[in-house]
Backbone:
């Protein structure tokens, strides 16, 4: 009997721990909560909130297989294209040369908020547990297409296949690449690559007007361009997929900027994040950036950050 009491107490303690663990898992931290825990000094910008479901705990709110025709020109360093294929792709307007950061420089017509938002809406960035329930591999393409009711011979199926293959492509020399399928995995990648959680997230924001109707405007660079002190950055781009997938990479040698812009036509002011890739020596000569800007590999390539494109950068050089 004397031996039974300690055993009973041990068993009771174990059951209590199991119960506590079960209760804890049922109250699993939300993606936003996870972000706030790991990046307490980095607010989630409005443009990234657009990819979060309205009710994070209600899977019926997910947006699957919306319009998947996003631009993928920024990170395909090894892939080439043609000028004909670039015709009509307004995303290339966000590309520019480093010298165009001088005050008074003009941009091409830029639409920071795309009209896609008015139609099918933006795909949902799933909580990590839910995203992990879906296969994400080109070897599982048939299963993926079946799960999202996509015809294997359709254009959307081709886009899904292309995105998966792109996520599996070998990175450039010195570069680290990762496709984030959840907000949590995006945070983990940025923190692990930059070795700090004292980060700022560069995107765009309208300063003096609320952008209710997406519009294309030409802007003029204003005085006050700020270059961030660190040459390290993690750049993330929205991918074409049934749910939100971000291709994130830590390129070799980057410069990050906050650029004040003003549109002459209506006075709209934008605080625009921009990144310059200063080492493009290994890029394909027929990469979209090379063709659009009329340059050769080795020339720095810069781009403003439109909707669905973000840069994580350390707040200090350290």
Residues:
């Amino acid at each position: 009997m004397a031996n039974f009491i300690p055993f009973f107490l041990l068993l009771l303690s174990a059951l209590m721990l199991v119960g506590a663990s079960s209760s804890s898992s049922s109250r699993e931290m939300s993606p936003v909560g996870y972000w706030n825990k790991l990046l307490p000094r980095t607010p989630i910008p409005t443009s990234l909130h657009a990819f979060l479901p309205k009710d994070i705990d209600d899977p019926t709110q997910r947006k699957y297989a919306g319009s998947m025709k996003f631009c993928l020109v920024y990170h395909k360093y090894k892939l080439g294209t043609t000028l004909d294929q670039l015709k009509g792709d307004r995303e290339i307007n966000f590309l520019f040369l480093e010298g165009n950061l001088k005050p008074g420089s003009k941009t091409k017509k830029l639409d920071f908020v795309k009209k896609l938002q008015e139609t099918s809406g933006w795909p949902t960035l799933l909580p990590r547990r839910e995203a992990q329930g879906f296969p994400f591999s080109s070897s599982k393409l048939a299963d993926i297409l079946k799960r999202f009711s996509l015809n294997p011979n359709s254009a959307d199926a081709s886009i899904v296949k292309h995105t998966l293959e792109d996520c599996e492509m070998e990175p450039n020399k010195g570069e680290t690449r990762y496709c984030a399928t959840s907000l949590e995995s995006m945070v983990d990648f940025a923190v692990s690559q930059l070795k700090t959680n004292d980060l700022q997230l560069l995107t765009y924001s309208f300063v003096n007007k609320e952008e209710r109707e997406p519009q294309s405007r030409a802007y003029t660079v204003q005085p006050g361009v700020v270059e961030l002190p660190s040459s390290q950055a993690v750049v993330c781009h929205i991918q074409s997929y049934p749910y939100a997938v971000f291709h994130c990479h830590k390129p070799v040698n980057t410069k990050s900027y906050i650029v004040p812009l003003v549109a002459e036509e209506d006075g709209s002011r934008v605080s625009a994040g921009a990144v310059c890739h200063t080492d493009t020596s290994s890029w394909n000569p027929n990469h979209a950036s090379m063709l659009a800007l009329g340059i050769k590999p080795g020339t720095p390539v810069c781009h403003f950050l439109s909707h669905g494109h973000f840069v994580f950068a350390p707040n200090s050089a350290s």
